[in-house]
Amino acid sequence: MASTRRELISLIEQGVIPPEQVARALQASGLLPSPRAWALFIDRLLLWLGGLALAFAVLFFVAYNWAEMGRWLRFGVVQAAMVLAVGIAIWPKASPMVQCVALTSATLLVGVLLALFGQVYQTGADPWQLFFTWALLALPWVWVARLELLWVLWLGLLNLAVGLYFRTWGGPFGVLTSSDAALWGLFGLNTLALITWEWGARYRDWPRQWAVRLLAVGSGVPITLLMIVSIVDVGLVWSPVLAIYPLWLMALYGIYRYWRPDLFMIAGGCVSVLTVTTLLLARLLLWEGDWQEGSLLLITIAVLAMGAGALVWLKRLHREISQ
Questions:
Q1: What angle do CA 211, 200, 320 make, to 5 degrees?
Q2: Which of 23, 177, 213, 256 has the maximal Cβ count within 10 Å?
Q3: CB under 8 A, 24+ apart: contacts of 236-241
Q4: Residues 6 or more apart from 223 whose CB is under 8 A from it?
């Protein structure tokens, strides 16, 4: 469908398809969803919303009736809901989509059960242990389901566990501050997950849709924030991020320009570069408290020029990729 869309756009831009025939061309190409496709989308949307609503309803029911329920009744309600979800997931007559929704609900209920256990018995565990244990216990179900959404949810739990762990204990051997260590941990985890997912998509037919782009955002945001922290707090002195950030940009451009062209990834790299460059320019011109009108005007002109240049380059790159 993506190649069909690119070919249609190319024909429209070249004038092969006149403007008054664009609607007919879209209908003939199959890019516009049919009534059956809309019905299927609404059916699946309601199924997912209903499954998630039931899972969260168990949490809110126990929380609202906390004082009236004994500990065994609380555990019984959550565990009964979990057993029901797993039973639906392994029911032979259930459709694959229903099984995926049931496993997703069961995965959420694992977190509810762990939170309930910690609240009832006051274990005193750190928050990162809850999310790490949640991810560990849910891994078999995520592996069995092989659903893109569940894998992203599982990686989100690991991100929370890693971020909370480094915020609690700081960096290894006290080399990094807690905030820097958390960003480094998130960058390493999401970059490794992105590499693994791209490998699986190329050699194991893993789905390569929105999840890969979400992982790229999860890798790009921490490294960009590390550059921002380096510029603001450390200053223009040597830092490991000064070497890793350009390597990350070069790898991002090389992979998603030549190996697997993806304009979204390159555009994200441009946003990161513009952010870091603008902050660096502000550091050089305004950090000493010299808020002159000329300096602010220079930064504004630089941002507009860089943004316009990036837009022109991305449009030209889009035409090259679409050919």
A1: 70
A2: 256
A3: 236/283
A4: 183, 187, 241, 244, 245, 248, 272
Which DSSP state fits 12? H
Structure-model confidence comparison of residues 128 and 177, the more confident one: 128
* Confidence (pLDDT) at 5: 67
d(Cα 5, Cα 32) in Å, to the nearest integer? 11
- What is the pTM (predicted TM-score) of this model? 0.79
- In total, the chain counts a number of residues equal to 323
Residue 179 confidence (pLDDT): 59
CA distances from 226 to 89, 161, 214 (A): 42, 19, 19
How many CA atoms lie within 13 Å of 46's alpha carbon, on the beta-carbon side? 5
* List of residues 6+ apart from 227 with CB closer than 8 A: 241, 242, 245, 276
Q: What is the chain's mean pLDDT, rounded?
A: 83
Helix, strand, coil percentages in the chain from 3-state DSSP, rounded to 5? 85, 0, 15
Per the CB < 8 A criterion, the answer to whether 109 and 55 are in contact is: yes
| Amino acid (one-letter) located at 291 | W
Query: Which pair of tokens denotes residue 247?
Result: 């390597």
CA distance 215 to 195: 9
Q: Tens digits of per-residue pLDDT, 130-165?
A: 899 999 998 888 887 778 888 889 999 999 998 888
DSSP summary character for residue 65? T
Rounded-to-integer distance, Cα 164 and Cα 130, Å: 10
> 3-state DSSP call for residue 260?
coil
Choose the weakest-confidence range: 63-72, 241-250, 263-272: 63-72
